[in-house]
Amino acid sequence: MTDQQPKSLALAGADTLESDKNERRKLLLLAVLTMAAVLLMMFSAWYLLFRKPITEFPLPPIGVEPMPSYAYSLYGVQSPTGVAVAPDGSRIYVTQTSGEAAVLIYDGHGTEVGRMVPPPTGTDHVFVYVAINPLNGEVYVTDRPIAQVHIYSADGEYLRSFDPPEALLGWQPLGVGFDSTGNLFVTDAATQRVHEFDAQGALVRTIGATGQFNFPNSVVEDASGRLYVADSNNGRVVVLDPTGSQMAVVRRGPQDGDLGLPRGMAIYDQQRLFVVDATDQSVKVYRPAEDPAAVPDFIGQFGVAGSGDGNFRYPNAVATDTRGRIYVADWDNDRVQVWTY
Q1: In which domain, by residue range, is 19 found?
Q2: Distances, alpha carbon 105 to alpha carbons 67, 92, 157, in Å
């Protein structure tokens, strides 16, 4: 064998090794691209099926709870205290407490498309909170000075006012909300209690012992039937079991997750409880506890004091849609902020 033969064999072996490496690189690249395509298809199917942002895709927990980010604001409203949103975000209802008493109606792009004005009866109207009946889309608005709850169509036409039973004459309706079955909850600033009515308007029960609440501003219900009451002037959120018995309290205080002046609340996908803290200039986010008697888990907050994008000045209400968007009535900044996951 000549000296040239071993050199040729060595070169051939090197070429084969390099070819194998190139083949492995191609296979690895193909595998990565295939995985990326599969993930893209899964994310696309998730979005098309549930119409939720990709950040809501049910990935395994990694120990960090994401907070929503500021997206944009709706302007043209004066001193908003209440906000309600259609599930798909196509209609946004905002109460205006300065200037003309009205509920402003925005479309999903933030364009004002109508207004709800007070009925001809009564004077000195002030619309405070607003909620949408999940059964028929009717909009309920509390008018505190004349102690009434007005009912409008989704397009803003006045339909009627809600007549409480004689036992509640003299009430001062403040907060208003619904559960998924169409039962109506109204917080009463006169009796400092919460009244629940069925879908036909009959009084089901009154919740709260004497002295338990001090200006309750809102109430929401989770999938387990637990009620959360924003006990505003006591600086706390009270958690009640389905019978109305107190189970836990998110307390007032200076620590993370403690409250100052809780106002509006909203439940998002039964996994998060949003609580507007008017004096902390923020929205605090909790996860309902697995233990029915446990305090909800504090997982973070968003917003700081100020007038810039993402800043609050005495926020008062919060609502969510099914697309991962959170709407906050930013009272002293004359706007509604929209945040998104």
Answers
A1: 4-50
A2: 27, 6, 11
